[in-house]
């Protein structure tokens, strides 16, 4: 079991302006929890083929903590938040990225019902973490009707803003956090005690299933930039760069292509193409200030890479990354057969919180002799050592079958990035090396693939076609480039890397 301390100090000796100085890197933590999908009507006497609701044909096999064919009952959600409290009860903050209602017809919902569900989950988190800052965003299942969030102020967004007012008022914003969310569903706020600014996006207005924006023509500013969110983000990121802030970019729906959909070579996308392209451009233009990105929606565990510009495979330079967190719901998606279900998962992120003004430095000659297990040598020489770099990611999970069989929910550490991928910290360069090694090395890929469904699915099920899909989804955010990659237009799967110079040390979970 991994024991997590709230803050770890790593002392690094540097030479600054010709004189030795000591920089103390304080490692903090935060939870990323997402996709609860609380099912109000779940019952252990229900039929799992009917979302665990219908009791007329009950098999008697539905468990207290959920079923892989159904969304989450409240005991599962409670166990997840209790596990967060158990493994790290004093995080710096909590990131909660939405999707709180079940995957069922709109007939079962109303604005009032959705708000009540969000209220129940808000109270659950607040009861376990009463003094912890929370950065929440809405998912596409947090609106009624689902997916169809209009641009600008609306009743549901207003009521949720009031619900989260206490959290928002605790945050030091770039502009009024409450009013920003109330009017647009987005906001920017500083993480206390660090030089991190959280930029929380309303990704629902970019969703291809949202007819409120999908039907807007490209000939209008509303169609190209609904609610001016790209313009807002561009201006904000420029300002934050001037202030020497570092950004965690967060939202519910990610750009790019879903990694568990094999039905068509073009893949399955979430953003409207025009917004996918603009998001990619936004990241490329501001990669120097975007330290990391945290998104959700897939229910799976994966990551995405952004590159400096559109170059061929050998010349590409990774400049940003996005971590996709697994969901708490175990629900087996109906999108396609291979999408499958997952074990419930929650994620703890370890990051460097050290603050101060950025100054260029030269590392002392004995730098590599210091205890730097948490520092990535790829990023050893940066504008400063106090950037809020992610140094490790730990995913905890519940074996749902075992929990139902034993009658208790025992969450465990599933894996962490540092040991599984042999990472000293997380960076675009480091993750690109992981992706390339996974492409050539089946053993490492199998570790990634097992984590993708939070320890549920056997990697043997992933054929070469499946492996190619994952590689393309990770490395090609652009839809056309993904299509070419998945069609083998670029380098073939077997010949892509040739001989890997050095294989990462693998630690089998």
Automatic annotation (TrEMBL):
One of its GO terms (molecular function) is metal ion binding. It comes from the Eukaryota. Transmembrane segments: none annotated. One of its GO terms (cellular component) is extracellular space. Gene3D superfamilies: 3.60.21.10. Its cofactor is Zn(2+). Residues 29-300 form the Calcineurin-like phosphoesterase domain. Residues 1-25 form the signal peptide. It is found in: Secreted. Keywords: Glycoprotein, Hydrolase, Metal-binding, Secreted, Signal, Zinc. Residues 389-487 form the Sphingomyelin phosphodiesterase C-terminal domain. Its main location: secreted. InterPro entries: ASM_C, ASMase/PPN1_MPP, Calcineurin-like_PHP, Metallo-depent_PP-like. The keyword Hydrolase applies. Pfam families: ASMase_C, Metallophos. Belongs to the acid sphingomyelinase family. This is Acid sphingomyelinase-like phosphodiesterase 3b. It comes from Portunus trituberculatus (Swimming crab). The lineage of its organism: Eukaryota, Metazoa, Ecdysozoa, Arthropoda, Crustacea.
